[in-house]
Every structure is written in structure tokens, then in C-alpha cells.
Design brief:
It is a single chain. By secondary structure, the protein is mostly beta strands. The chain has 17 helices and 82 strands. The strands form 23 sheets. Strands 57, 58, 59, 60 and 61 form a five-stranded antiparallel sheet that branches. It has a four-stranded antiparallel sheet with strand order 1-32-31-30. A hairpin with a 5-residue loop joins β40 and β41. α1 packs across α9. It starts with a helix and ends with a strand.
């Protein structure tokens, strides 16, 4: 929300207009024939007979000043009105009359004149067909709006007389609502057998829709939606009563989309509402007692900003309903830059303070990952990795299987009559406000808006490619024609076994697209017609599950979908190349379950409800892999972070640098046999030590009560015995970007342990290190009997992206000496280091160093006789520079050497990078004012462009205003237009080629094979990584976590992860396990993760920035032993009974800013374990005979 100044300027624009009131898993089933096949064929209006045109021409009543939804268009409804088996069409007109077309067969339609002629003309919006009086004929409910008195905004209900004539009867049914209605959805929310109605509303009375004010949440809002209960079951005849307030539908919003589905799978239908402008999107969850509870803030991490239409469907065939919402972000650089104004982080935060959700101007695809153990639904927003986030000014998303491959594809309409988002236009009109009268300004705005060009673009269609990816098939599938489209619906108009499309357009004939999938050989289908009970004859709200070859498809009988439209009542399943259907399960609206077998493909099957069935579906209970034990451990810990506004000091930062922590360090600090842990703190707060006990609970305490230490920002933390007195001391790295260069508060700190877990800061042991640091890792790299340190340099304060200053510190009798220059050439300024690992990557017995970071390549330093040499060029890897966060290791393929996992930004991001098209940053003091100006670029349409808006670039570097006097000139500019060759040459440059999180498989000869982690590991940045054998199968698994809420608001926070269990197969490949099975709910601003042993059980501790720490253990008690490893051991060789061998290293610090227990996990299948010290002297610690 407010992530771009387009939004702020858009606010200004509306304010002026409104009287200036404010200044994969399975193989793809479908044949590949669709790759080169034009799936849809446009049918001309001359051929179809459908010549409806939703003609809009501005006048004194209908214009952007007096009715700001004047260009929002109309809808279309599809249904068989005369029961001849063919779907008919009804179009709503804004300034023209509604029209009805009867299907004559073979895609020929006949207009029925005067069918609804008795209705008074008005501004029609949404339309839904429903058999409201259950007489066997579909009726038509039409919503009304417009710049009219309320008497002329009465919604209409056309009762089908059975002879293609209709009688308007909204008043007598109690449905002649006089608000500003968008669309209606009919469903039985209270399970009394009859159909109730949810009415989606907007308003024309609100003059400042983007002003940040407290949300009206008591039902008194100007555009509050309405819920009408059907009283028919009470013997009152078919009469609807407004029960909005008592049902809990009380949150205001400008509604543009509504869908109905049982989102939480509790047997009761819920409501998903998408709202334009400021209001959140809403998920009204049915409580089963006639009331609803709004849950969007609990279930959604963020939403679209200018939310238009929506759809609810199961996109990945997991049996759960996902949510699709469209917005208005352009896919191309030119149009995005013309509508992108200054970012305003403070305004964004203000909106959050008013309890609004984070909102971003892009389409959002919320994938339902199921219920957490706390019974909350978690949605992962994956629109950017899916590739469907930017489709211009969009209206109607429809999820359906258009190519009959068993996966739901996505169709999106878009376009707008006037390009009123053009910032040059907005700035021009804004500049006149102080020069002319109000009436003159109104008149000028009306005239200038009419002169603006149209946003006339092709609609989009995307093929579902399984996993999380959709492929843009717009041109290949026949949608290259540019239109201004709004409402749309699908139906098998020609009864040939595939879904055709009907689209309402502005100022040109409606479109009909014939789907030609039926001509392909291997794309099978099944059509269903549900016949319900007396009061709900079309079985609205029923669910159907289709089982086929181990897969499941789910559909809900609900016709209101997309935008102002409703689809046909037939349910359509694509089957791909298979013709065998294992079974169908129908869950009827009253909860009754009906199972059908021996269903034939490529047919229309009618299913009649069996009145004798009343068996309800009980949710299956299962035990998750992990369980939350935070409360049991008595660790109510919240990491505290003082808010610092990074973007107010450097406007062009891609993300904050002040919210890097916390990290966690694990060790037995008081030598009582129980592991303890330390968690770092943010600026203004103190880190805390938690002492373990025999009961498994923890007692917290501060290690330093000196107020002076609260000025530091803790980053990496580490327990290690620096003075060889056989207790663990504590190192705390000091980082962030909050202080000026060379500040004393960047000095790292070392605390000595008295042996009882009491810590005292020691001075003079560390060199002066007034640099912002990140990770700290200990190892005896020179093999002299004490632990030395690598300390990563995160950044140069206030000089992003200049490299930080890293250190190799040699321990000389308890005093650390900086030997970086002498012993590690190239390490000092390796980059913006985020993590590192001491590891023997070439298995020669000397512990080498791998360093990763932001805009850094994966950098390998080989340890040669105590000196570190950069050998990255010899690893067989190239173009590895990324936005790396962390590294961890394990022998993932059981071949006796160490492989690596590296956490990166992930692929669910606005920015994309590759070897050929990297992300690049150019940093220089361009205006010579003493500050570094970082200009970030990506490739769009094959050319390198700045990612920044014109306003933000000028705010950072004012001299660019002369070069780009308007938004159009900047929108056309490539990098070469912005920076001269000399400036590009002088600038500090860094590139990122790889954003995916990866595995590096060690080939055993000093080279590595890169493998991209599965899709679900790419939906968010990875910070936390634990490596362990979760299922005790002898193969290492991974548990990863991460997110980042500190992004600039134009990009939006990365928040899709809730923690992910990746099951390893022993060959270096990993398979994601469903979140509902895993049981993890680590969905916050997750950072450091550590493993700790509590009561002889492995427990994972998850820390999050400014949020509570969580602890998880295995849900089921396992036959797992934990082996104490001698302190001097660097690795173990584990030989299994099945003949395989695995190597495991032991670290003093691994994973983001953190350190885990060094105990070795055993599963009982080990035959022999040999541990090795730094001199590769082996000791057998386990031998089974």
C-alpha cells in the first residue's frame, strides 16, 4: 500500500477530480500439442450474432470528476435460461441497455429484444443467474450503480417466466438494494436449505478514497457490503432480510470482487472480498452460527493495493482453495515508469499503524498451504514467482482448465478507457489548482480526461505449468487483439468438451472466443451437472473432488467469479491424456457425501443428490512432523528492534540494512550438562542468555546491564573458548547501518566466562574494528591449538553497496591479531558479507573458508599451510554472484565429501537476474554532495533500465531533473540515457546473476555442480537452515526458513515462507513436504536458526526480527541418539549398515548469524563412526559388531 508515488499521485488526482477535497510434482498430463496450437479462435460478431457494445461516452453526469468509476465497465452472465442444454448470455450496460442473447447452437446467438424491457434504464454493473424461486428456470439478478439518486440505483431481479420473458420483482423479494452495487453472490451461508445473498458494494460519495483514516469497522461505512438472508425456510415465502450487522459483515471497502468457497474446509462457505484503494481485502470466515469472522490480517501477509476482481480455485491440485486477485501494474518498463511516483516509506508505515495490511500494486496469487497446528490458515503469496503479477489495468481473473490438461489456467481481462494514471497528466492538472476556480478546474479536468489516450491492450492468458509457474500464452493461444475488457465468463458454449470465453468490452462488440482444445487428441475431459434439492436445485455451494492416478482436482459449484460476472453452472474437469477416473466425491451443500465410481471420461454426467445420504465429512486428523513447544520451554522471548528509517538517509536502497538480526548461539556455558543459548538484540536493547535445566525449561538473564552496550546492534553471535580455560566465552558482532563510518558502536565485543555462565566484557583482546560486521566463525586455521576467527564485513556505513571490511583474526595466547592482509589476500574487501563457513571443501584436512554475501560471488578460500587463497575460479562455477544470505553444509549425496546449501533472495521477487541479464548497481557521488548514490538496474524488454521511479532518482540526485523534465522522457530512458559512459566507468559496480537458493554438490575434485532447490524453497529469501535427518532414513534433510520485511515499499516485503521441510533422498535431491504435514508456522521476519539439545531431544530455535522466538521438536518420539563429540574434532566419517558412507563436519558457527549444538544425531543404522581432529587423527567413537 502506498508503495509507489503513483499511489500518492493517484490520490492527488482523485482528490482533484473529487472537488479538490484534498491536495511440478507429477509430470504434466497434457500433450505438448498445445505448445504450438492456437487454442482459441475469436468469433466475429457478424458470425455469432452477439453485437452488444458497452458504449461509454463522457458527459456532464458521467465523467471522472462526478463519477470516478465511470470507466469500470460491465459484466456478463452465462447460463441456460430456456433449459435447452445450451448456455445463454446476458450483458450489463453502463450507459446502454442490458442485452440478452439465446444460444442457437454452433456458436450462433439470437438477441431477445425487450426481454427485460420493463426495467428502468440505469447504470448496470454485475450480473448473476440464479434459480431464486426454484422453479427450474434461471433468473437474473442485476446490480446497479452510477451517478444517480438512489431511487434509480435499485438492483433488479428478473424472474424467468419460462418463455424467454422476464418479470422484474426485486422489491417483492426484498432485494431492491439502493446502494452502489458491484456484484451479488448467492449461497446458503446458514445451511437452512435456501439461497441467501452477499451483495458487494462501492460508493460514489467518498471523496478521498486513499486518505489514511481509521477503517470503518462497525457496519456504518459508506460502502459496507450487505448480507441478505432468505427467510423462505421460516414459512414467510421467498423474502430476503438484511442481516449484515448481526452476521458481522461490518468492514467498509470499495468492493470490486467477491468469491464464495469453503476456504478453511470446515464445511461452511466463506466469503473472499477484494477492495479497491485503501481498504484491506477481506476473508469473512463462516462461524457456523449465522455469523462471520474477518480473518485477512491473520491469514494474509499482504494483499494487492488496487484490488479489482478475484477468483478462488485450487491451482496446484492439493485440495485447498487458493486466492487470485488482480491489480494494475504494467508488465513493461515504459508504462510502469509513467505511473510510478516517489516511494513513501513513512506513509506506508502510517497505514500499517492504522491496522491496514501491507498492500502492493500488483496481482497477487495466495496459495493456501493449509491449517497450522494453531488452526490458522496460512497463505503464501507467490504471484511473482508464478509470473502473473503484472498484467496492466486488470479486471477479471478466471481460473479454469482451458486446455484440459488437469490444471487450472488463468485468464485475465484488462484495459481502461482513459490513461488517467499518466503522471505528466496528473502533474499538469495538479499545477492548475491554485490558478483557476473550482468550477473552472472541474471543467478542465473533464475535458483533459477525455483527451487522454486509452489503455487498449490484449487480455492475458496463462497456462498452468504445475509447481508454482504459469506460462504467458497470450499470443500463442489467440489473444493478441487489443481491447478494453472488463467482465468475462467461461462456458462450453458449443458443447464440445472445452471452455469457451465471453468477454464484455468497452466501446466495441463483446468478444466470444471458441476453445479448440477438442480438436486435440489427448486432452480429455469430464463435464458434470449437479441436481440438488428443492430449495437449491443447482446445488450452489457443493464441492466435487475428482481422483485420478494419485492426483486430486477440486471444484466448487459457485458461479459468481472474476469481475461483475458469473460463469455457467456446469462443472468442467480437464483430464489430460488419461481417460480413467478413479472416483468422484460430491459434498452437497448440507454436508452430505456421495461417492461415484466407474465414471466415463469425455461425457456430460448428471449427478442427482441422494436424499438418503446425510453422512458428513469429518476432517482427517494427522500428526505433523514438528510441534511447537515454545510455551513448554518457558521461553517467552521477543526480539526487540528500534525502528530506524534507512530510506530517509539513502532513498535508493533496495532494502533496509538495520534489521539484520537476531542470531542465536548454543552451548553449555555453565558446564552443568544442559545446553544454553544466547539471542542477540537490536539497537537500544540488550541480548539475553537463557540457561537450560534438568526440567528442559530455561531461565533468562541479561549478560551485560551496562546501558552503554545497548547502543550496539547485535548481528552474529558465537560461543567459543578463546582463552583455552575449558569454558565457552561469547563473541557478539556489531553491525547495522545506523551509525556513521568509524563509529565506536561498530566495535565487536568479547565476553569472558567465569566458568559458571557469568560473562564480563574484556577489552584489549580484539583489535579496533570500527566497521559494521555480520557473521563470526571460529576455527584453528593455523593448527596451533587455539581458536581463530573469521569476522565478516557486512557493509560500509552509509555507502551502500561498497564492500564491508572483513577480518581474519589469529589467536595469539588469548589476544586476537588482524592477519588478513598477510594471510588472506583479497578477503579484506571480499564484498558485503552475510555469512561464511569454515569447511574442508577439498577434503585435504585443512579447513578452508567459503564466504557469501550480497552482490557477491560464492567465494572459496583454500587453506594452504595457514594461508587463505581465493580458488573460486577453479571450482567449475561461474556467474555465482547473488544476494546470498547464508550457507550451511552436509554430505547430501552420501559420497564422503561435503556439499553445501546456500540461501539466496529466491525467485518470488520483482527483480529477475541471469547470466545474460544481471541485476547491476552503479554507485557514485553523481552530484558531488558527499553521499554515495546507488542506482540499481535490471533488464526490461531486453534493455537495461533503472528500477527507480523518476521522483526517487531525482530526490537522491537532484541534477537528474534537468535531464528528465517529465515522466515520459524518463520512462523512455535506458541506463545509457541516465548515466554517461564516464559515469558508468567511474562508478563502483556490482552485479547479481543468481537469485535462486541452491545446492552445491561436491564432485570430489575441487569442483561443484550447482542445483536449484525446488520451487517451494524459492518463494522467499532463505536465512535459517538446519541440516538433519528428519525421518531417520539415513539421508540428510533440510529445514529452511526466512522472509524479509525490510524491503523498499515499491518492491514489497518478502513474506511467503512459513518454514519448509525438504526431504533428502541421499543423492543430493530434495522434495518439499507440504506445510500441513510439516507443522511449522515460522511465518514472521525470520532470521537466525539454531539446533539445541533439550532433554536428549533435538529442538530447533527460530528467531525473528522484532518478533517472538519459536521452538519446535519432532512430534513423534524417535529412536534417535545424540553423540557427544570431542571438542577438538572437526569431522566424522559415518559408515552405515547398508554400506553407504557419510561425512559430517562440526562447526563453531554455521547458518545465518548463528551456532548450533555440536552433538551428532544417530538413528541406529550406523555401523561405525570415526571422528577426526585437525591433524586428521581418527578416533573410533562407535563400532557395532
Amino acid at each position: 500500500m502506498f508503495q509507489q508515488c503513483f499511489q500518492n499521485n493517484f490520490l492527488m488526482f482523485f482528490c482533484f477530480l473529487m472537488l479538490i477535497s484534498c491536495n511440478k510434482e507429477k509430470e504434466h498430463l497434457a500433450t505438448k500439442e498445445t505448445e504450438a496450437f492456437q487454442l482459441f479462435n475469436g468469433i466475429s460478431s457478424d458470425s455469432s450474432g452477439v453485437n452488444f457494445i458497452n458504449e461509454i461516452e463522457e458527459n456532464d453526469r458521467f465523467n471522472m470528476v462526478d463519477f470516478f468509476y465511470v470507466y469500470n465497465g460491465g459484466g456478463v452472465s452465462v447460463g441456460d435460461l430456456n433449459n435447452d442444454g445450451l448456455p445463454d448470455l446476458f450483458f450489463t450496460g453502463n450507459r446502454v441497455d442490458d442485452e440478452l442473447y439465446i444460444n442457437q447452437g454452433n456458436l450462433k446467438f439470437k438477441k431477445i429484444k425487450h426481454a427485460v424491457a420493463e426495467a428502468e434504464s440505469g447504470w448496470s454493473t454485475g450480473v448473476t443467474m440464479v434459480d431464486i424461486n426454484h422453479d427450474g428456470f434461471l433468473d437474473i439478478y442485476v446490480c446497479r450503480s452510477g451517478n444517480y439518486p438512489k431511487e434509480k440505483r435499485k438492483n433488479l431481479l428478473f424472474i424467468n417466466q419460462g418463455d424467454l420473458t422476464f418479470k422484474e420483482a426485486a422489491e417483492s423479494y426484498g432485494l431492491a438494494d439502493t446502494g452502489y452495487a458491484t456484484q451479488a453472490a448467492f449461497f446458503d451461508y446458514d445451511k437452512d436449505g435456501d439461497l441467501d445473498m452477499y451483495l458487494l458494494n462501492h460508493t460514489n460519495e467518498l471523496r478521498s478514497p486513499n486518505n489514511i483514516t481509521p477503517l470503518v469497522a462497525d457496519g456504518t461505512g459508506l460502502s459496507n457490503d450487505r448480507l441478505y438472508r432468505n427467510e423462505e425456510d421460516k414459512g414467510k415465502g421467498i423474502r430476503f432480510t438484511d442481516v449484515t450487522q448481526q452476521a458481522g459483515i461490518v468492514k467498509d471497502g470499495l468492493g470490486l470482487g467477491v468469491s464464495i468457497a469453503d476456504i478453511d474446509k470446515d464445511g461452511w462457505l466463506d466469503i473472499f472480498v477484494t477492495n479497491d484503494f485503501l481498504a484491506n481485502d477481506y476473508i469473512y470466515v463462516n462461524q457456523g452460527d449465522g455469523t462471520f469472522k474477518e480473518q485477512s490480517k491473520k491469514w494474509l501477509a499482504h494483499v494487492s493495493h488496487f484490488s479489482m476482481g478475484n477468483d478462488v480455485a485450487d491451482i496446484n491440485n492439493d485440495g485447498l482453495y487458493d486466492l487470485m486477485t488482480v491489480d494494475m501494474r504494467p508488465p513493461d518498463n515504459f508504462h510502469e515508469k509513467k505511473m510510478s511516483g516517489p516511494l513513501n516509506y513513512n506513509l506506508f508505515q502510517r497505514a500499517l499503524d492504522f491496522e491496514y495490511l501491507p498492500q502492493y500494486m500488483r496481482n497477487t496469487l495466495q496459495v493456501n498451504t493449509g491449517k497450522t497446528p494453531e488452526k490458522e490458515i496460512h497463505f503464501a503469496e507467490v504471484g511473482q514467482i508464478a509470473g502473473i503479477d503484472a498484467t496492466d489495468w486488470s479486471w477479471s481473473p478466471l481460473l479454469a482448465d482451458f486446455d484440459n490438461d488437469g490444471l487450472k489456467d488463468l485468464f485475465i481481462t484488462n484495459g481502461y478507457l482513459r490513461d488517467i494514471t499518466d503522471l505528466d497528466f496528473i502533474n499538469y492538472t495538479s499545477s492548475l489548482s491554485s490558478e483557476v476556480s473550482q468550477d473552472q478546474l472541474d471543467s478542465l479536468l473533464k475535458q483533459k480526461a477525455k483527451e487522454m489516450p486509452s489503455l487498449k491492450v490484449p487480455n492475458f492468458i496463462f497456462q498452468n505449468e504445475q509447481g508454482l509457474y504459469f506460462k504467458n500464452k497470450t499470443d500463442e493461444w489467440g489473444f493478441e487483439q487489443s481491447t478494453m475488457s472488463n467482465g468475462a465468463a467461461y462456458a462450453d458454449l458449443d458443447q464440445d468438451g472445452d471452455l469457451d470465453l465471453v468477454i464484455s468490452n468497452i466501446n466495441e462488440p463483446a468478444s466470444i472466443y471458441e476453445n479448440q482444445t477438442n480438436t486435440l487428441e489427448n486432452n480429455n475431459y469430464l463435464d458434470l451437472q449437479l441436481l440438488g434439492d428443492a430449495l437449491n436445485p443447482r446445488a450452489l455451494g457443493a464441492e466435487v473432488y475428482l481422483y485420478q492416478n494419485g492426483t486430486i482436482q477440486t471444484l466448487t459449484q459457485m458461479v459468481t467469479r472474476g469481475y461483475q460476472s458469473s460463469v455457467d453452472y456446469g462443472l468442467h474437469f480437464g483430464l489430460g491424456s488419461e481417460t480413467t477416473i478413479d472416483s468422484l466425491i460430491v459434498i452437497w451443500p448440507d454436508g452430505g457425501k456421495q461417492k461415484l465410481a466407474d465414471v466415463t471420461a469425455n461425457t456430460l454426467k448428471k449427478i442427482t443428490k441422494d436424499d438418503g445420504l446425510k453422512k458428513t465429512i469429518q476432517p482427517k486428523k494427522h500428526i505433523t512432523v514438528f510441534k511447537n513447544i515454545t510455551q513448554e520451554l518457558n521461553i517467552d522471548i521477543t526480539h526487540e528492534e528500534t525502528v530506524y528509517h534507512d530510506f530517509n538517509r539513502t532513498y535508493l536502497l533496495p532494502h533496509k540494512l538495520s534489521e539484520q538480526g537476531p542470531g542465536i548461539a548454543v552451548g553449555d556455558v555453565n558446564n552443568d550438562g544442559y545446553e544454553d543459548f544466547f539471542i542477540g538484540a537490536g539497537y537500544g536493547h540488550s541480548g539475553r542468555l537463557f540457561l537450560g535445566s534438568v526440567s528442559g525449561t530455561f531461565q533468562g538473564q541479561y549478560i551485560d546491564t551496562d546501558k552503554e552496550q545497548m547502543y550496539y546492534e547485535d548481528t552474529g553471535v558465537l560461543f567459543f573458548d578463546y582463552d583455552n580455560d575449558e569454558d565457552l566465552d561469547l563473541y557478539i558482532a556489531s553491525g547495522s547501518n545506523e551509525f556513521y563510518e568509524n563509529s565506536e558502536y561498530y566495535q565487536d565485543r568479547l565476553y569472558t566466562n567465569d566458568g559458571n555462565g557469568n560473562f564480563t566484557r574484556v577489552y584489549g583482546v580484539l583489535p579496533q574494528m570500527y566497521n559494521s560486521t555480520s557473521c563470526v566463525r571460529a576455527v584453528d586455521f593455523d593448527k596451533d591449538g587455539d581458536l581463530d576467527l573469521f569476522v565478516g564485513g557486512r557493509l560500509s556505513p552509509l555507502k551502500y553497496p561498497f564492500p564491508g571490511t572483513s577480518y581474519l583474526l589469529e589467536n595469539r595466547n588469548g589476544k586476537f591479531i588482524d592477519v588478513t592482509q598477510n594471510r588472506a589476500q583479497g578477503l579484506r574487501k571480499a564484498g558485503m558479507v552475510t555469512d561464511a563457513l569454515w569447511t574442508d571443501f577439498n577434503m585435504d584436512g585443512a579447513l578452508d573458508l567459503i564466504v557469501v554475501g550480497e552482490f557477491m560471488p560464492i567465494t572459496f578460500f583454500e587453506n594452504i599451510d595457514g594461508r587463505l587463497k581465493n580458488v573460486s575460479a577453479q571450482t567449475g562455477l561461474s556467474h555465482t554472484s547473488g544476494w546470498w544470505n547464508t550457507i550451511n553444509a552436509g554430505d547430501f549425496d552420501n559420497d564422503g565429501d561435503v556439499d553445501y546449501i546456500l540461501g539466496n533472495l529466491g525467485l518470488n521477487a520483482k527483480y529477475k537476474a541471469s547470466k545474460e541479464k544481471p541485476i547491476t548497481i552503479y554507485a557514485l557521488d553523481y552530484d558531488q554532495n558527499g553521499t554515495i548514490d546507488p542506482i540499481l538496474t535490471t533488464y526490461r524488454e531486453g534493455k537495461e533500465h533503472s528500477v527507480h521511479s523518476r521522483d526517487d532518482l531525482i530526490k537522491q540526485v537532484p541534477v537528474f531533473k534537468k535531464k528528465f523534465p517529465d515522466y515520459t522522457s524518463y520512462a523512455r530512458a535506458t541506463l545509457d540515457d541516465i548515466l554517461t559512459p564516464e559515469e558508468q566507468s567511474r562508478a563502483y559496480r556490482a552485479k547479481a546473476f543468481e537469485l535462486a537458493s541452491i545446492i552445491l554438490i561436491n564432485n570430489g575434485d575441487g569442483t561443484f555442480e550447482k542445483r536449484i532447490l525446488p520451487d517451494w524453497a524459492q518463494i522467499a529469501p532463505i536465512y535459517g537452515i538446519t541440516v538433519l535427518d528428519v525421518d531417520s532414513d539415513g539421508n540428510l534433510d533440510l529445514v529452511v526458513s526466512g522472509n524479509d520485511f525490510g524491503t523498499e515499499v515499491g518492491v514489497g516485503q518478502y513474506d511467503a515462507s512459513q518454514g519448509l521441510y525438504l526431504k533428502g533422498n541421499g543423492t543430493g535431491s530434495f522434495k518439499p513436504v507440504a506445510a500441513s504435514v510439516t507443522g511449522l508456522a515460522v511465518s514472521g521476519n525470520s532470521r537466525g536458526v539454531a539446533q539445541i539439545v533439550i532433554k536428549n531431544e533435538l529442538v530447533q530455535l527460530y528467531a525473528a526480527n522484532a518478533q517472538k522466538l519459536k521452538a519446535y521438536e519432532f512430534s513423534v518420539e524417535k529412536d534417535v541418539q545424540l553423540l557427544e563429540i570431542p571438542e577438538e574434532s572437526i569431522r566424522a566419517m559415518i559408515k552405515f549398515k547398508n554400506g553407504s558412507t557419510r561425512v559430517q563436519e562440526f562447526y563453531h558457527g554455521a547458518g545465518y548469524f548463528s551456532q548450533s549444538s555440536r552433538k551428532l544425531q544417530l538413528n541406529g543404522d550406523e555401523k561405525e563412526i570415526i571422528v577426526f581432529d585437525k591433524n586428521l587423527k581418527g578416533t573410533t567413537v562407535l563400532e557395532m559388531r
